[in-house]
Sequence to fold (367 residues):
Amino acid sequence: MQVFPFIVVAWIAGVGLYGIVTSRNLIHQIVCLIVVQSSTYVLLLGVGYVTGAVAPYYYDVPVRTPAVDPVVQALALTDVVVEAAVTALLLSVAIQAHKRFGTLDPHELAEFKG
Amino acid sequence: MRPALRRWVFLAGAAGLVAFYLWGLSGLPGFGNYPGPYGPAILRIAVAQTHATGVVSAVNFEYRGFDTVGEEFILFTAAAGTAIVLRMLRGERERPPADEARDRDVPPTSGAVRTVALMFTGPVVVAGWWLASHAQANPSGGFQGGVVLATAFILIYLAGEFLTFRRLSPTAIADAVEAAGAGGFAAIGLAAVCLGLPYLDNFLPLGQIPGAVSSSGTIALISFFVGLEVAAAFILIVSELLEQTLLIRHGGG
Fold:
């Protein structure tokens, strides 16, 4: 079994998670979350890959040509959209947190109540 | 929670995650041996059934169309959520951040940035429009095209002033376009219901040549509406975030 793509997935998710845990800045933490989510694109595309197949587009290849799974590719698109939405909301919350408490450090923010 | 304790909690969680990941991997068929059944089944029938040569678009806007409605409304909600979270807080005008001078001069945009940004605006609009209207043919579609279209407006912001950006994409128009995009998608689904078909059924003529712009019926139309929605949503989100910068620049006013 060719495991290299799945090692890449674990590596991307791992560095992202480590970043989230150790970060001292909310914006940096949000970027780390994006990194974690990027690992799911590699995972999805890796799961649907078929050796020797073309992309699932029959514009200039005959219709019977073997192609990789189109369903996981569509899911990857959904994944990107969700990530954009989550990022936009988190960034706005970070801006408001900075405005109210004057800091972006999650450890300092944890000391404020309400 | 102290940082050291935090790290141990993380390591314990990560160990569990690794164990589950390896367990999950051991059940996979192996890289390059995707067994189906859905992918191969769709690949067999998609082109004949929808006349779309882009099978991913066929999945997104036809076979999984109902999911994509939800996906589009996630973005719609995110734009609304950003506007709500970044609303003017009470006392915001009265309490400008201490390190901001009230009439600090904003440095002018450099000529190089201005020229390059304006040079790219036209081609970017064309590219975005092309992407949003070719979902049925190739790896493009409303989501990709919409983001590229929104980029054109961000280039205008780079080239000039925030106010020009606001003039060219007033929030009221962007709001209306976003609503039209999201509502159009849902309305296409309801139109099928009015014709006595299942929700989001492809009721339009499929065209003669698979992959042509006029082919694939509702897939092309939905992609166009998604393009409108995504472009407007991104313009709204970006202008909300930029407004925050502008607010601070002018000392909270």
